[in-house]
């Protein structure tokens, strides 16, 4: 009896350590991701190439883990790849516009526009996926997010046309991507890791096209010709960390969702953004005014209200959790 009790105690302790470990890993990865991406794109100002390296890292990790039997993903199939192509294009556009936004604006602006996405997704789901209109309390949370974003924008002393052009591009691409990826999940029949693999692999294959359209190839050639320090440790380090954090947030996100409740995961999401704001205020000179920061916090409060108002039973919520985890930049 004593031996069984001691064994159960060790098992319970190990479970608690594991649960807190994955929660801490997710918090650290999610809170640092935007900061590291901003650092990486400042040192390596080629958003297309940066996102392509993130796609390659995630794709290679999924394939390797699949070979090692650490996870299961659907096999690659040309017909399925063709069907998935529109979703991959949208995913590419959303991550590319994300990198461009971080290049031209501060992290606060990124968080505000990321917080506004649910407002437009709610409308898109109703119009195109025949979902019911949100409840009154959901509209109240969306209105809170909108009010916070307006307060932030009107007090943004670093306002620039280029930054907000990319912010709007990010908002539009993310909204369409969220709505369409839900349609794909409901119709294409891939498992979670299959979706991650197809998403990142096909987005990676679009990279050469982006090089030509955006002229990034010529910019990179000029950097090499003028013997830039793009290959130095000061550049490689943030780029490498950006790729690893993108992979880390995917791993810890899935592990965390299995280990804790939906409410606990929502709380972690709030902690992540608060940590991001605090880190941003400490390490960067370029951040919002205190009024803008209040607007940002209002957006985050609206996000909490939104997640609470749309919480569903475990079975109904599982699918939406998998959709959300497809995004490497939260």
UniProtKB/TrEMBL annotation:
Subcellular location: Membrane
GO CC annotation: membrane
Entry coiled-coil feature ranges: none
Topology within the bilayer: Multi-pass membrane protein
Domain Sugar phosphate transporter: 30-306
Transmembrane segments: 20-40, 52-70, 82-99, 111-129, 138-155, 161-181, 235-255, 262-283, 289-306
Pfam families: TPT (PF03151)
Keyword Transmembrane helix: yes
Keywords: Membrane, Transmembrane, Transmembrane helix
PANTHER family tied to this protein: SOLUTE CARRIER FAMILY 35
Protein's UniProt name: GDP-mannose transporter GONST3
Organism whose genome encodes this protein: Glycine soja (Wild soybean)
């Amino acid at each position: 009896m004593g031996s069984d009790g001691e064994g159960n105690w060790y098992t319970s302790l190990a479970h608690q350590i594991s649960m807190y470990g994955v929660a801490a890993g997710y918090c650290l990865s999610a809170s640092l991701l935007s900061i590291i991406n901003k650092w990486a794109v400042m040192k390596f100002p080629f958003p297309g190439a940066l996102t392509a390296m993130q796609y390659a890292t995630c794709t290679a990790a999924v394939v390797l883990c699949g070979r090692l039997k650490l996870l299961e993903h659907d096999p690659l199939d040309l017909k399925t790849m063709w069907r998935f192509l529109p979703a991959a294009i949208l995913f590419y556009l959303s991550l590319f516009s994300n990198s461009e936004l971080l290049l031209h604006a501060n992290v606060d602006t990124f968080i505000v526009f990321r917080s506004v996405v649910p407002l437009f997704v709610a409308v898109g789901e109703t119009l195109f996926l025949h979902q019911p209109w949100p409840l009154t309390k959901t509209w109240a949370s969306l209105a809170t997010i909108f009010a916070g974003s307006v307060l932030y924008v009107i007090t943004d002393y670093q306002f620039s046309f280029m930054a907000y052009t990319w912010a709007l591009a990010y908002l539009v691409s993310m909204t369409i991507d969220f709505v369409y990826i839900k349609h794909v999940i409901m119709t294409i029949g891939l498992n979670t890791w299959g979706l991650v693999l197809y998403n990142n692999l096909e987005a990676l294959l679009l990279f050469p096209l982006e090089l030509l359209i955006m002229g990034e190839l010529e910019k990179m050639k000029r950097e090499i010709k003028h013997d830039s320090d793009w290959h130095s440790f000061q550049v490689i380090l943030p780029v490498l960390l950006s790729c690893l954090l993108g992979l880390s947030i995917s791993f810890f996100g899935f592990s965390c969702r299995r280990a804790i409740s939906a409410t606990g995961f929502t709380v972690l999401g709030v902690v992540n953004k608060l940590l991001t704001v605090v880190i941003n205020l400490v390490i960067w000179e370029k951040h919002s005014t205190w009024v803008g920061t209040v607007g940002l916090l209002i957006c985050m409060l609206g996000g909490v209200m939104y997640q609470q108002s749309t919480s569903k039973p475990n079975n109904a919520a599982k699918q939406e959790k998998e959709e959300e985890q497809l995004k490497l930049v939260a």
